[in-house]
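tool=predict chain=A
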Amino acid sequence: LEKRLTVCCFICTYVALFSAFFNFLQLTEVDNAALPYREGYTMDFCRPIEWICTCPFLQLVLVLMGGSKIPEYRRVLMPLLAEGVLFAGLASTIAPMIALRVGFFVLSCIFF
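tool=predict ok
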């Protein structure tokens, strides 16, 4: 239990530092991107990038804290599903056509 807790604390420290860095960038206009097919819509690209880089680690922490009662394959499956949901969500946000947006949204719902 102590080893699992140490690893989980290390991973959560990484997540906190990474989130702090990206939240600092979100305060600036460095990451702002105006999508040409949506009038008046500015997207902060740091937010989805932060989520893509940190959410799988949080899923991994959940599996590690569960211990031996959780099957081994979940160590890979849960972070990959989190990545799939986040990438499909980002793709649905930046897709230019409504059909693509709906398709990526449905794909993210399937991953979820």
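The chain has four helices and two strands. The CA atoms of residues 25 and 42 lie 15 Å apart.
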